[in-house]
Amino acid sequence: MVGHLNLILRLVIWFLLTADFSVANIIIGVSIALLLPGRHKGPEALKDWLRVLGEIVVALPQAYIEAFEIIIRPHKYEDITMERVKPRRTPGLIFLDIFLITFTPKTIVLKYHEEGWYEVHRVRRRKIVGQKEG
């Protein structure tokens, strides 16, 4: 089941990159998705995939709310934080985590560190106590 989710994720990325749903492009996309090497270090947990997909559904309204907040009340402060990657994350789940963080208007992942950290840039409405100006 999880192998199917990896295949679907690869195809979705392919179609987002190409924006072409012709028969030839579908054949090319399926071929590439099948030929890309998979991870053989252990089975991915289906519950992790379902949890991330549920978080994506929740992120959609959150993104609209944050966009309106930025329009209505300016966010003048920003900071960069390091967030720990959840344990046992496969490359597909790491991609979805980065997508989730970057999808909302107030946050963006600047870098993924192989040691298991995301470098996240955030905009905030208020200054955090102890944060340096500028």
From TrEMBL:
The reply to whether Transmembrane helix figures as a keyword in the UniProt entry is yes
Q: Which residues cross the membrane?
A: 12-36
Keywords assigned by UniProt, alphabetized: Membrane, Transmembrane, Transmembrane helix
The protein's name in its UniProt record = Na+/H+ antiporter subunit E
